[in-house]
Amino acid sequence: MKVFVCQSCGHIEFSSAPNNCPICWKPKEQFKQNDNIFKESMEKSKEAAVKHIPSVKVNKSCGLIPENTCTDIIIRIGEVLHPMTAEHYINFIDVYQDGKYIQRLFLTPNVEPAGCIHLKNAKGKITVVESCTIHGYWMTEQSI
After folding, report:
1. Which residues of 50-66 are buried (b: 16+ CB within 10 A; e: fewer)?
2. pLDDT at residue 140, rounded to an integer
3. What is the domain extent for residue 127?
4. Which of 52, 55, 93, 131 has the most other CB atoms within 10 Å of its CB?
5. pLDDT at 46 over 80
């Protein structure tokens, strides 16, 4: 799998770098290929996986927008909840549908390491990438 990382904001793209980053709008030249980014995080801290691998729960009925056909994608970071301290926290969660970026959830030490998005067209595969300030990037995938 080809992985391209924006050197400005940390956003990841799969397969190829975009013309402009969808987060910070920096040009394609700001992306650096690193196909081992997830492997490097795991090797750096194998015991950290329990607090870093995102879990995804799919609710086919939306709790917030029941009047429309909507699916909740509920994300939690870590089987053991990731700590959120000033020095060590999840700074963002990026969500992809069928390999295409759809949303970033920004986090701070003042919130829990979790979030929810509401999909209009829930089909295919969801990929969740999170970035920890100490332990790097972690990813999970799940079919809807």
Report:
1. ebbbbebeeeeebeeee
2. 96
3. 44-143
4. 52
5. no
CA angle 44, 88, 125 (to 5 degrees): 70
31 and 100 fall within a common domain: no
Q: Classify strands 125-132 and 71-77 as parallel, antiparallel or unpaired.
A: unpaired
C-alpha to C-alpha distance for 140 and 54, rounded to whole angstroms? 6
CA atoms within 13 A on the CB side of 38: 19
> How many H helices and E strands in the chain?
2, 10
* Global pTM value: 0.92
Identify the bridge partners of residue 118 per DSSP, sorted by sequence position: 72
pLDDT in tens, 47-76: 788 999 999 999 888 878 878 788 999 999
Amino acid present at 69: T
- DSSP letter string, 56-87: EEEESS-SS-TTS--EEEEEEETTTTPP--SS
pLDDT for residue 19 is more than 80: yes
Same domain, 27 and 84: no
Let me know whether 23 and 61 are in one domain: no
Confidence label for 104 from pLDDT (cuts 50, 70 and 90): very high
The token duo for 73 is 């994608």
Shared domain check, 78 and 55 = yes
